[in-house]
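Shipment paperwork, digital attachment
Item: protein structure file
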Amino acid sequence: MATVELRFSAQPEHVRTARLVAAAVARRAGVDEAVLDEVRLAVGEACSRAVGLHRSHGISAPVSVALTEEEKAFSIEVGDSVPGPGGDPAASGASNGSGVSGGPDRPGPETDGEGEDEMGLAVISGLVDDVEVRSGAGGGVIRMSWPTPRHDPEPTAGATARS
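Attachment content:
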């Protein structure tokens, strides 16, 4: 279940708001303070990428951001509405969490944008250990996640030992 869902028009000025909201929700979800800058930067890159894709393809649909607090992780999905190659998510490829694949080979009229797109994905994969990029007929999604502390208390060492 998403903790927070954002939808904003594909305008660069809205990316800052998405970064601030992501950092606030991540902090509340228990993401380590030392990682919050990485969350902000990664969300900024993913949202900027989505805004750029929308603008370069003339898409007026909003960019979507879903921030989800799970039991042991906090995840963010940034979605765009730019159709991927062939419209088949299985054919476009998806990463296994160890890196970024899929996504950058999106159709587009501008070849200059491809380099920016790949650079943005490289930055995101450098900031986040668990990244997945998917694209299909309905658009693309970048899913990023960060660990959160366990919610159940750890047993003390003396509690399990017998005398």
